[in-house]
Structures are given as C-alpha cells and as structure tokens.
C-alpha cells in the first residue's frame, strides 16, 4: 500500500519526505520501540511505527530498508531526528494516536 494512504489512515502529519515518497509502497508495519527487535526482523519494505523519537529510529529504519518512520503518541521528533531523516532519505511523520491505535489503523488499511 502506498505511503500516503497509510499515513492518512494513521492520521499522520508528514514532517519530511523527498518528492517521490508517495510512490513508496509499504508491505508491512513494524510497531516497536526496541530497535534491536526491528533489526532482527526480515521484512521487505516495512513502515516503522514507534514511540521512540530519537535518531536511532531513523538509523534503524535506514538499515532495514523501511519506507518511513512514523512516531506515535503525539511526540514531536527533535530537529536532529528530522535532519537525519533528510540526510538518509527516510520519510518521517508523526501521529497524535497512541502506538496501539495507530497500529490498528495501519493494520486495517493493509487489510489485516
């Protein structure tokens, strides 16, 4: 499913993305705060949903080939996180929804 549709389902605000981000398709959603757990997963083109508003989430998303990072629980990513997302080319968004509610909304959007 395309990133724009998924972010809309999670009522997300896009903070940064390159011009071609709308063409990105996510095949899975990974909801995690322990980035070591994310690194252990072998999923193609996931969307990383987390309440971790740190640069480590962006670095992890970049390593696993995530199509974007979505920060939940109404947290606002700090400027350093946004700058790193821009540098690494990882779209970054935030949602006011709790991580659980965002996961449910994203799962429904993916047809799970």
Q: CATH homologous superfamily - what is it? A: HprK N-terminal domain-like
Broad CATH class: Alpha Beta
- Strand percentage lies at 15-25%
The chain-level mean pLDDT equals 96
CATH third-level topology:
Udp-n-acetylmuramoylalanyl-d-glutamate--2,6- Diaminopimelate Ligase, Chain: A, domain 1
Order of H and E elements:
HEEHEHEHEH
Q: What structural class do the secondary elements suggest?
A: alpha/beta
Secondary structure: number of strands: 5
Question: Structurally, how many domains make up the residues?
Answer: 1
Rg on CA atoms, Å = 12 Å
Biggest sheet features: 5 strands, mixed
Q: Report how far the terminal alpha carbons are from each other.
A: 12 Å
User: Helical amount among residues, as a percent range?
Assistant: 25-40%
CATH architecture: 3-Layer(aba) Sandwich
Estimate the global geometry from the Cα principal axes: globular
Order of strands across the biggest sheet?
1-5-4-3-2
As residue ranges, the low-confidence spans are: none
Number of helices: 5
């Amino acid at each position: 499913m395309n990133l724009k549709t998924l972010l809309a389902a999670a009522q997300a605000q896009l903070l940064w993305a390159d011009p071609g981000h709308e063409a990105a398709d996510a095949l899975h959603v990974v909801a995690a705060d322990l980035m070591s757990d994310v690194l252990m997963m072998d999923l193609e083109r996931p969307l990383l949903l987390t309440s971790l508003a740190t640069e480590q989430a962006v670095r992890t998303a970049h390593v696993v080939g995530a199509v974007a990072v979505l920060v939940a629980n109404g947290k606002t990513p700090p400027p350093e996180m946004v700058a790193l997302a821009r540098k690494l080319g990882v779209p970054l968004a935030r949602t006011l929804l709790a991580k659980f509610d965002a996961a449910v909304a994203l799962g429904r959007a993916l047809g799970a």
